[in-house]
Design a protein that fits this description.
By secondary structure, this protein is mainly α. It has a single domain, classed as Ankyrin repeat-containing domain (Serine Threonine Protein Phosphatase 5, Tetratricopeptide repeat), CATH 1.25.40. The protein has helices at about 5-15, 30-35, 40-45, 60-65, 70-75, 90-95, 100-110, 125-130, 135-140. Helix 2 (about 30-35) runs antiparallel to helix 3. The protein is elongated. The termini are far apart.
Length: about 150
């Protein structure tokens, strides 16, 4: 239900004590964030869903990558880890995808502009340059990111 944006069904399930974090590898918050369902993300957080997700399913990472700015704001306001986890780095994904407003939002929340792990295939600045995202490159340079 969270994957497909069925807010009324998600609310009904939660009201009947469904686990806001899902079971096993099913993570409703991750699915709602990935697919841009802001109202469901808010609802799940209100019912105690883990803002950072589980294992490799990081809601902030996916929302940043897909350009869901309102969801990124919501997750950050609920204290999501701005630098992500082993599954990747939200700033790198937003920079690579050219989401300038999200890059700024993440930087303003203290994202590490020099984060590089094996998943990211490079620093945020390098990923933005590789994709030709001039506005993001300019923004990162304006934040004193070194070349």
């Amino acid at each position: 239900a969270a994957t497909n944006g069925y807010e009324a069904i998600v609310r009904l399930l939660l009201n009947h004590r469904a686990n806001a974090n899902g079971k096993y590898s099913n993570n409703p918050l991750f699915e709602a964030a990935t697919n841009g369902h802001e109202a469901i993300v808010r609802l799940l957080l209100d019912y105690g869903a883990n803002v950072n997700g589980y294992h490799s399913k990081n809601p902030l990472l996916e929302a940043a990558d897909r350009g869901h700015e309102a969801i990124v704001k919501l997750l950050l306001n609920h204290r999501a880890d701005v630098n992500g986890n082993i599954s990747g780095n939200p700033l790198s994904e937003a920079a690579c995808s050219g989401h300038e407003a999200i890059v700024k939002l993440l930087l303003d929340h203290g994202a590490d502009a020099y984060c590089n792990n094996y998943i990211n295939y490079g620093y945020p600045l390098h990923r933005a340059m590789q994709r030709g995202n001039e506005a993001v490159v300019t923004l990162l340079l304006d934040y004193s990111v070194k070349v």
